[in-house]
Amino acid sequence: MAKQHVSFKLNGKQVDALVEPRELLVHTIRETLSLTGTHIGCETSHCGACTVDLDGKSVKSCTVLAVQADGSELKTVEGLADAGGLHAVQKAFIEEHGLQCGFCTPGMLIRAYRFLQENPNPTEEEIRWGMSGNLCRCTGYQNIVKAVQTAAKTLQQA
Amino acid sequence: MDNTAEVQDREDSLKGVGCSRKRKEDARFVQGTGRYTDDLKLPGMLFADMVRSPYAHARIKSINKEKALALPGVHAVLTAEDLKPLNLHWMPTLAGDVQAVLADEKVHFQYQEVAVVIADDRYIAADAIELVEVEYEELEVLVDAHRAMDDDAPILREDLVGKMDGAHSTRVHNNHIFNWQAGEKEATDRVFEQAEVTVKQDMYYPRVHPCPMETCGCVASFDKINEHLTVHLTSQAPHIVRTVVSMLSGIPESRIRIVSPDIGGGFGNKVGIYPGYVVSIVASIVLGVPVKWVEDRMENISTTAFARDYHMTGEIAADKEGRIKALRVNVLADHGAFDACADPSKFPAGLMHICTGSYDVPVAHLNVDGVYTNKAPGGVAYRCSFRVTEAVYVIERTMDVLAQKLGIDKAEIRRRNFVKVEQFPYKTCLGWELDSGDYHTALEKVLNAVDYDALRKEQQEKRTQGELMGIGLCTFTEIVGAGPSRNCDILGVGMFDSAEIRVHPTGSVMARMGTITQGQGHQTTYAQIIASELGISSDEISIEEGDTDTAPYGLGTYGSRSTPVGGAATAVAARKIRAKAQKIAAHLLEVSENDLEWEVDRFKVKGVPGQEKTMKEVAWAAYNNVPEGMEPGLEAVDYYDPPNFTYPFGIYLCVLDIDKSTGETKVRRFYALDDCGTRINPMIIEGQIHGGLTEGFAVAMGQEMPFDEQGNLLGNTLMDYFVPTFVETPHWETDYTVTPSPHHPLGAKGVAESPHVGSIPCFTSAIVDAFAHLDVTHMDMPHSAYRVWQKVHELGLDKRA
Questions:
Q1: Which CATH architecture has domain A88-157?
Q2: Where in the sequence numbering do the catalytic residues of B fall?
Q3: pLDDT tens digit string along B155-169?
Q4: Contact by Cβ (8 Å): B425, B742
Q5: Whole-angstrom Cα distance, residue A148 to residue B512?
Q6: Count: domains in chain B
Q7: Which of B28, B39, B519 lies closest to A100 in CB terms?
Q8: Which helix (H) or strand (E) holds B618?
Q9: b/e per residue B415-429 (b: at least 16 CB within 10 A)
Q10: Which residue of A has its CA nearest to B123?
Q11: What confidence tens digit (pLDDT) does each residue in B117-163 have?
Q12: Cys-Cys with A88: which of A1, A151, B418, B486 at CB 3.0–4.6 Å?
C-alpha cells in the first residue's frame, strides 16, 4: 500500500512520518515514533488507555487514522511534564495513589489534563462523568477522583 | 523525653512497616515510561497473529496456506502439522491434562487457535489470517455442563477415549474430568437425616473473565549462535514459565531467560501458559528472529482464560436456633475443552474446601465433578485463591437462606455460628487450620458503624410503601498464601517463595524476589519490610522482580501470596542479615553478641550509652573488617515454605435501592471491614480494597460470558462484557481490625483478594434482601438491570396503580 506523508506537532515538536492510509494513530505514535506511553487496551474505543490530546480534545487514538492527524497538534503523556517538573495531574495521581498497574494511567492523565481545562472546578459527579470514557481495573476509581480533585485545586492556585 | 522522640524520628525516617509510603513505581508510570511487553521492539522482530475457529466443535478437513504465504511480508504459516515433528502440537496443562497448542484435526471451542501467521507487522499478519483457508465439518456441540455426562452426549476429547484414569480420579464418562471429595459423606448424610431444619439452594456462578487492562502477550527471541532463548511475557509466574518452556523445548533452564516486565494487571489472567506464547517461541527458534504476539481484547476474553463456571448446591442442616449441624456442597464444574485450571496439583477444585467459611461446622461433605464442554479452557482464580470465591459464595448464600427460613436476622445467625476468638487456631472439619480471627468484634464494629438497626427500620418503612431496599451482609474468611509445600505444588515444584537481599558497603540495599508485581506495589512494600528489619531507609532499598536470570526461583504472584509467602521470605532473609550484622557489630565494639540490643537502626551495648554501631557502619565493616573466620559480605537468601496458609477475613455490608420501573440498582452504601493482620502500607491496602470491591461489583452486577446453543460466545468485547466505569462504580467505605497471623514472621496475611471474594456474595445478599419479604431466597448473578427487572416483573411489582 502506498504510504502517505503526515506531519504534526507532537508534544511541542514538529514530526514527520510515512504511514499507510489505514494505519491507526496509536500505532504511529507507539511504533513509528516510539512513544510507548500511550497504550492499547481494546482497539474498540471503549477503554481509553490510548487517549491522546488532539487539537485540544481528548480522543482515543485507536480509532483515529494517522492521516487524520495531519497538520494537528498532539499531546501524549510524555508531553505532560516540562522543565518545571511533573504536571499537577501527574503529581496528584502519585499523591492520592491514583494508579496501581499503571496501564490505564497515561490515558487517565491526558484525559484529566484536558478535563480540568474544560471544567476547572468540577464536582465529584462531574469528574465521574467527565472521566467515564477511561476504564481502570485496579483502583476502583475512588483515588483517581481524589487525584483529579487535588489537581484541580493545585491548578486553580497556580 | 527527648530520647524517645529521637528514636521515634529515626524510626519514622525509615518509612518501614505501617507507613503509607508513596509508591516507588509511580514516577515511571505517570510519565509513560513504564515498560510493558508490547512496548518492546527488537531488531528484525516479526509479528504473530492467530487464525481462530469460528465453530465450537468441528473437524478440520483441510487447511490451505498458499494465499497467505503469497502475501508479501508473510514469513510463515504454522499449523498443528508443522508442530507435530517437534511434538509441540499439544502441551501439558497445569491441571494434569493436555491442551492443543494449535487445533489438531478438531476444534473444541470457538476462537480456538488453528494456525499462526508470522509476518513483518501486525497489519500484514491481520491481512494474512484472512487468507488462510480452513475447511470445517461441524460437529454436535456440548454447551450445557449438566448434559456433559449424558449417555448420548457428544464425545469431545477423542484423544482421551478409553483413558479412564484421569489426573485426579477415575473418569466415569468421556466428558468427565474428575470427581473430587472432601469431608465425611456418611456422617454428614446422617446429620441431615435427623436434622430439625434443612435448607438447600442451587446457584450458578457464571463464567467470567479477569479482563485486565493489558491483554496477554510475549516477545520471544532465540539467539541461534548461543542457543539462548529470551522471552518477555505477561506472566504472573515467570520462573514456572521457564521450567515449563525448558521441559517442552529441551533447552536447559540455564539458557532460557524469562522476563515479566511491567504488567498491566493480572487478576489471574496471566498465570497460565497459552498457545500464543508457545507458537511465538517456536517461530522464533525456527526463523531465528524475535517474534511478538499480543492478543486483542476479543482474543483475551474469548480464550485466555476464564474463571468460575461452577454450578453449586449448598445445603445446611441446623437446629431451630439456626446453629449449623452439617454442611453439604455439590459442584458441577465446567472446565471447558481442556482442563487448564491453575490450581495446586493436588487440588483439582482448588481450595474449595474452605467452604465452611467463618463458621463452626461440626461435619461437612464437598463433592465436585469436573466436566468438559465446548468452551475455552481456563479456570483461573480471578482475584482469588483457587476457587475461594466460589466457596465463600456458596456458604454465604446458604447461610442467608437458612436465616430466612428460620426468620432469624442474617447478622444474628452469623453471630450464633462464628468460630469464637478462643477457638483459634481452629481446625475446620474439611481439614484447614484457621490461624487467627476475631469475627464477633469485627461484626459488631460494622453493625455499629452503619447503624444496622436503623437500616432495618428504614427498610420496614420502605416495604410498606412498596419500595425495594436491600441490605446485604457477608462475613467471609479467605484462605491465601499458597502454600505449604506439603500440600501445594505446581507441576511438582513446591509453592514456597524467595527473597535475596544484598546490603552494599555504603549501606544501600538491592533485593530480588521470586514474586512479580502487577500493580500491587511490591517495589514499595517489600522495601518497607526490609527497612524495618534492617534499619535502613526504604528509599535506599531497590526491589527487582520478574527476571529469571537475576531473581531467585519463586512461584509468582497470584492467590494473594506475595505478602504471606514472599513477604515472609523477605523478613526472614533480612533477619539472617541482621544476625550476621550483630556478630560484626560485637566484633567492632569488642563485646559479646549477647551484650548487644537492637534499636531501630543500630546495635547498642546494653547499659553503656554511646557504645553503638549503626547498620550502615556494620555494612561498611562487612566488606573490610569481619571477625576472624567469618566470610565477608552482607547478604542472604531465603526460600520460605510457609507452615500454613493465612486466613484474612472481613465483614462487608451493602445497602442498595432498586428502581421498580427499570430494575436498576443504586448502591447507596458499601462498608468493608477487612482484617489482613499486620498492615504494611495502609495506603496500598486501601487501594487494593477499592480495586477488589470494584471487580466484585463488576462480577455481581454484570459480568458473564454467555454462549448460545452452537457454542458462540455472546459477549467478548468491552461493549458487551461489563467493566464498570467511574459512573456505575459505588463509593467505598473501608475499615479494619488487626488480628495478626501467629505463624507469619510479620503477622501479615495478604489482602488484595478479600474485597473481591467478600463483596460478590454481599451484593447478591443485598439484591435478594430487597425481595426477601416476598419469599425470594436466591437470585443468580449477574444482577443486571434487565435480570432484576425480570424478577420485579415476575412478582408483579412493576404494575402501576
A1: Orthogonal Bundle (1.10)
A2: 236, 383-384, 753
A3: 999 999 999 999 999
A4: yes
A5: 34
A6: 3
A7: B519
A8: helix B615-622
A9: bbbbbeeeebebebb
A10: A23
A11: 999 999 999 999 999 999 999 999 999 999 999 999 999 999 999 99
A12: A151
